[in-house]
Amino acid sequence: PCPLCGPQLQGLCSFLQLSTCPEHLLVRFCGWLLALTPDLSYNSAAILAEQLFLKRVLALAQPPSRHLMAALTSFCSKYSQPFCRVLVAAVLQEPGEGAEQTKLVCELVEECLEPDCVRLVLSQVLELPLSEKLLPVVQAVLGRQEVLPSELFDLLVLTICRQAPAFATSLNYAKLVTAMLTMYQSQVR
């Protein structure tokens, strides 16, 4: 068992003020985390994803700094499942526009996430009411051209069809439907 789990790890993160440490130190800390052996447990990685990144990402009012982006991508490269379950889920559920957060999630989907995590992000989106904020995330997922399990693809098609009236004047929705018909024409019946 890990000597630093749950409450102890959260306490250590608070003590070290990891949620507010300078971003250039965050990059170094993530480098150190990635070098640890054995790898962090799922729960420890989830706690660290929350402690290191959640406040910073939810507070973004402009594009993330290169330091923050480097830290996010390096952490995400090794611990993408807990990262998606904690950070991406929180961003998707955050009310309001969240333009910078949405762009960040799209960038991570396009460039960092493994195929299973891309599918996880799509399933997280489909658990929520579709909104203008979420359409670019779905577009980013489709842009990866991953093979989607039939249940997930069917749910996506159903969701997009059901939501059509609400997005009658949405350019993002039109782009999404076009992308879906283009990329998955063999699956769309």
UniProtKB/TrEMBL annotation:
Superkingdom of source: Eukaryota
GO cellular component, one term: Fanconi anaemia nuclear complex
Pfam families recorded: FA_FANCE
Membrane-spanning residues: none
GO biological process terms held by the UniProt record: interstrand cross-link repair
Domain (Fanconi Anaemia group E protein C-terminal) ranges: 7-188
Name of the molecule in the record: FANCE protein
Originating gene: Fance
